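batch job 7 of whatever, protein = Pyruvate oxidase
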Amino acid sequence: MELSEKLQIPIIITGLAKGVVPDDFPANLGSAYRASSKTAYEFMGVTDLVISIGANYPFARVEYDTHAFKYIQVEADTAKFGRHHTLDYGVWSDAKAFIQKMLDRSQTVTPNGYYKAAQEATKDWHAYLDHLMNRTDGPAQFEPLYKQINRVAEDDAIFSVDVGDNTINSFRFLKMNPKQKLVTSGLFATMGCGIPGAMAAKLSFPERQAWNIAGDGAFAMVMQDMLTEKKYNLPIINIVTSNTVLSFIRSEQEDVPQPLYGIDLEDADYAKIAEAMGVKGITVKTVAELPAAFDEAIATVKAGQPVLIDVKMTPRRSIPVEDLVVRENGQDHVTEDVNGVTHKTTGSIEDFLKKYDAVGLKPLSYYFEKNNVH
């Protein structure tokens, strides 16, 4: 963070680095590509320099091939040099040692509009997310759910996030600090990893709060492991975001586009299933029911027992920020990403944002113009 401020270079993280840089650091733009923040994705589309510090970024090819830029890679394992992009300059070093040397040898850069634009855009993105989380009525939705997770999560909690829309939503809505940890599938592909990750967390760090956050599709693959949680008295908080659809796959099929196929799920009463396995089960159907359900869940794990909250949610999609580009020939555009190839659409930015309840969001070009970035 100190180096970012000194050199006026914003930070973009990979998803697996969630929490390493505090989410409330003003120049932490979040993660990029599909499970990304709007600001990170837009800045990756215009940057003229990327300094990759110890980052094994599995979706780099999609992100890095959008345009030409200088690429500096800092890596302790020389076999990884050039793995994701052609090197302009490679530094064989431990990440922390490199950052310290940069702090010692660099000169402070005068505050500039580019860095300020990054901070302002990030602040507005966070305000948009908070607005969504602060809904207080209606059927249960994922944004108010994550507000409750943030409310009761302990400062050193460990989050095991299963694959699906929770990958995107946890990267966006969890407000993490460096003492907390997140574990998930690095390629966003291993459905069913939520409960095993949470059990590993609780067995390794029994004094820390452990979470399993999973969609109904992923949870149904491994829900029998609640028996293991019960058998070994593992007080894990299990959250099932139940919307009867494989949302992550549905979004991919919509984006291609192709006919929706093989994504519908049969609903189940996961709270009753949990109770049958000796685990406390709670069902939530409305936003208003969330606070009491989480209070009950925390009381249960503090008593030394696992708990499951089955949240019956609407199947809404979070805004696909990868469908935004900044500016071409003076015009903002919406795009569609089809098999890794970006295609301009005829839709306007305004129509796109309205569709995803994001009318207040502004394109990056707004912040560049405001701060005289050319």
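notes: DSSP finds 15 helices and 14 strands in the chain.
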